[in-house]
Amino acid sequence: MGHAAEILGVTQAFLRSLDAARLLTPGRSEGGHRRYSRYQLRLAARARELIDAGTALDSACRIIILEDQLAEARRINDTLRRED
Question: Which parts of the sequence belong to the HTH merR-type domain (predicted)?
């Protein structure tokens, strides 16, 4: 977790808050340390951007979830269009 926080320029408490808000569910090492995927780090960075812009944590999480769902829907549409 410390390394992830350092990479993102955030505190470990910030990453824990994203975990508590259920935006991120990091894996765990055998020693119990949180392990973040690159995808999760991108989500955390986006959350930091939104929060820095004045968005509340819960609203930022909802925005990120909706952005992710929209991106997935667009990928599916593109795939279906190519199949035609």
Answer: 1-66
